[in-house]
Design brief:
The structure holds two protein chains of two kinds. Chain A contains ten helices and ten strands. Chain A is of the alpha/beta class. By secondary structure, chain B is mostly helical. The longest helix of chain B has about 40 residues. Classes of the chains: A alpha/beta, B mainly alpha. Bound molecules: adenosine-5'-triphosphate (ATP) and magnesium ion.
């Protein structure tokens, strides 16, 4: 089991200033599987997932204790290059955030900052990643249009394409569908299902049906603690903890 | 009509009157300057004013070209100094410094905008002018001295408006960029700055307006000689200085020629603003 874990979270505590937001979290994220994180609002899901690619580094006064391993290497170790970590571990945010640039440049940007300057290669990879994120058909004739002209669902798929283009190894999704209609949501779920062939995926979701549909493992968070972590099937059919059962059956309150 | 609707109408009417009177005061001032300045320009020929090299206003010689070049030179010089320093400072304070430092420094910079220009001129006279005279030559009263002082004077405008527009860039843009493995500087250069572009251009336009209109500090340090400068160490007289220096004793056609100077200054400012706004609009649609 340990050997197939792409990432591992060990005795993680996380503080916003004095506030302990996450308490002693232990969890593994397996290769080529989808790991879901569920829990009520404010329980620390976003905080947790942002720790996995060091996005919380930019929050002043925040502090991490414990270890987050990627292939056995602690990503918070002092000698680690944080830029390299974020390149390997991509992220798609709760609210889609395309840059105010053209559709093409939104994707090309990530390539350019990672040292890819060959025009032909950029064009190829923009096309591939748009195809992989199921957006190519809809935008192939208007790659020069500003990304803000896209619909909300298309913008979120553009953000996924942007993350895919730099070929990360792990992709983190923070409620990628929270602002989307059922059709766009279905598209993105289908996409995540395809992506797990190549990538390791962790996804935060509010939507328990979604977690049940797309994930292999599920972790349930409550007030900064990981209450239960197991195979999705097990969590949804036969949870070990009372709190988990209350939450998934909607009796939480 | 209910009382509520009537009150609404009354307030609208009052606001309209106030707006109209503000605009008409500006219009009257403009008309007055043109009325005083235009006749003499037509009498002796607009070309003589625009391209004449000699300024002997008591002997019907009204060439303003040296002053036009003087104004443009010190304005350009001040922008060459003010833009890089101002932008670097704004970028440092929004993107790279701690919140504490920004909260201390920004009000101080805004305070600098309130220092009277005669104080800047005085600093120029006692520090900068002797420095230039000793190390670079000439009298020290020069295009260079005026450009440096004006460059410093426009810093608060450029810095504080640029900071505001950089801060208005949504955090999600920066996060999106950083999550792709961009460094802070790459994010600033390729995401944050382009998103804040129109505000930054506005700050430069306002700074330019301040530089071209500044009078007191320039009179004190630019040398005020009516000749076209051949190097940055030569003295110059600007259009504003020309008016301020001579208005006290001018009469008759001399006085009218100073109004003509005002007309030309007015037109130059209009042209520069139009160019700058057009550039800003073009950048926005890009
Ligand atoms: N930048 C921050 N500074 C201080 N506290 C924060 C910050 N971000 C989040 N918190 C706090 O940490 C806790 C967890 O927040 P987090 O955003 O991780 O919740 P979440 O589970 O993602 O909620 P939601 O489902 O509503 O997105 C909350 O109590 C929140 O107030
Ligand atoms: Mg969240």
């Amino acid at each position: 089991m340990v050997t197939t874990n792409r990432m591992e979270v060990k005795n993680l505590n996380f503080y916003y200033g004095q506030n302990l937001a996450l308490k002693d979290i232990n969890m593994g994220i397996e290769s080529n599987k989808v790991t879901a994180v569920i829990g009520p609002s404010g329980c620390g899901k976003s905080t947790f997932i942002r720790i996995l690619n060091r996005m919380n580094d930019i929050i002043i006064g925040s502090r991490v204790e414990g270890a987050i391993l990627l292939d056995g290497q602690d990503i918070y170790a002092p000698e680690v290059d944080v830029v390299e970590i974020r390149r390997k571990i991509g992220m798609v945010f709760q609210k889609s955030n395309p840059f105010p640039k053209s559709i093409f440049d939104n994707i090309a940007y990530g390539l350019r900052i990672n040292g890819i300057n060959n025009k032909g290669e950029i064009i190829d990879r923009v096309e591939t990643s748009l195809k992989n994120s199921a957006l190519w058909e809809e935008v192939q004739d208007r790659l020069d249009a500003n990304a803000s002209e896209l619909s909300g669902g298309q913008q979120q798929r553009l953000c996924i394409a942007r993350a895919l283009a730099i070929e990360p190894e792990v992709i983190l999704f923070d409620e990628p569908c929270s602002a989307l209609d059922p059709i766009s949501t279905a598209k993105i779920e289908e996409l995540i299902n395809e992506l797990k062939e190549k990538y390791t995926i962790a996804i935060v979701t509010h939507n328990m049906q979604q977690a049940a549909r797309i994930s292999d493992y599920t972790g349930f968070f409550l007030l900064g603690e990981l209450i239960e972590f197991d195979k999705t099937e097990k969590i949804f059919t036969n949870p070990a903890k009372k709190q988990t059962e209350d939450y998934i059956t909607g009796r939480f309150g | 009509m209910t009382t509520l609707e009537r009150n609404e109408k009354l307030i609208q009417l009052a606001l309209l009157m106030i707006a109209l009177s503000a605009i008409s005061i500006l219009a009257i001032i403009t008309l007055f300057i043109f009325k005083e300045g235009m006749p003499i320009m037509f009498k002796y020929g607009v070309n003589k004013f625009l391209f004449g090299l000699d300024w002997y206003p008591t002997e019907q010689s009204f060439g303003l070209l040296p002053m036009i070049i003087g104004s443009l030179a010190v304005t350009a010089g001040s922008l060459i100094i003010g833009i890089p320093f101002g932008l670097a400072c704004a970028i440092f304070l929004t993107e790279f410094s701690s919140l504490r430092l920004r909260q201390i420094i920004k009000p101080i910079i805004e305070l600098l905008a309130g220092i009277p220009s005669v104080v800047y001129g005085f600093m120029g006279v006692i520090i900068l002018v002797p420095f230039i005279r000793e190390h670079l030559g000439g009298s020290g009263l020069s295009v260079l001295a005026a450009s440096i002082i004006l460059g410093i004077m426009i810093l608060p405008t450029i810095i504080s408006i640029s900071i505001d527009s950089l801060q208005a860039v949504p955090r999600s843009y920066r996060e999106g960029s950083i999550a792709l493995g961009a460094t802070k500087w790459q994010t600033t250069k390729m995401v944050t700055l382009p998103s804040a572009k129109s505000g930054i251009i506005a700050s430069i336009i306002l700074g330019m307006g301040r530089a071209i209109g500044e009078t007191m500090a320039v009179i004190m340090i630019a040398g005020n000689a009516v000749s076209i400068p051949h190097s940055v160490l030569d003295p110059v007289r600007t259009l504003t200085s020309n008016i301020a220096l001579e208005m006290g004793y001018a009469s008759g056609e001399h006085r009218q020629a100073l109004f003509a100077t005002g007309v030309i200054l007015f037109i130059i400012i209009m042209i520069l603003n139009t160019i700058a706004n057009a550039t800003a609009a073009k950048q926005r649609t890009k």
